[in-house]
Amino acid sequence: MYSSDMEALCTIRQVAQRTGLSIDTLRYYERIRLIGPVRRAANGHRQYRQADLDWINLIIRLRETGMPLTQISYFAQLRRQGPQTTTERHLILEDHQRLLAQQIQQLMQHMEALTEEIVCYKEREEILAASSPAIPFPATTTEEEEGIR
To answer: In the chain, what's the furthest Cα-to-Cα distance?
Structure first.
């Protein structure tokens, strides 16, 4: 589907497939003004532009990195206000980036602690294996079978 300026347009179903969001979530995001207003065809069907997809993908990225929906809503409100809010939006993204960096640092510390713990367990297993007598495998025939022969 193309608009008069030959920009590719997507249906809500196509956007849902491309983003992994449900159609209901897309409608909800439009209702709470995270996205939109989305262009409509003459029949009332939504027509998403690439700019809409880019914005939806940013929303998804912000959500997946832990930004609360209320803060994303505020960010969207600033975006609707236009270029005069560019600096404030930039600062919001930098704050979020700092929080992510802290979370990553914490996760790395947790990873290091788990790695050390795993090494300790492996060493314990090696000590146990070395100090335990070998467990013989059962013979292919039982003693009763040997007596029968």
So the answer is: 97
- Which of 5, 22, 16 shows the shortest CA–CA distance to 52? 16
pTM of the predicted model as reported, rounded to 2 decimal places: 0.73
C-alpha angle 9/13/19, rounded to 5°?
Answer: 85
C-alpha to C-alpha distance for 123 and 120, rounded to whole angstroms: 5
Q: Tokens 């300790």 appear where?
A: 120
State pLDDT tens for residues 9-37. 999 999 999 999 999 999 999 999 999 88
Task: Tell me if residue 22 falls in helix, strand or coil.
Answer: coil
pLDDT tens digits, 41-53: 999 999 999 999 9
Distance, in Å, from the CA atom of 17 to the CA atom of 137, rounded to the nearest integer, reads: 55
DSSP at 85: G
List, in order, residues 6 or more apart from 103 with CB less than 8 Å away: 66
Question: Which residues make Cβ contacts (< 8 Å) with residue 73, sequence separation at least 6?
Answer: 32, 33, 34
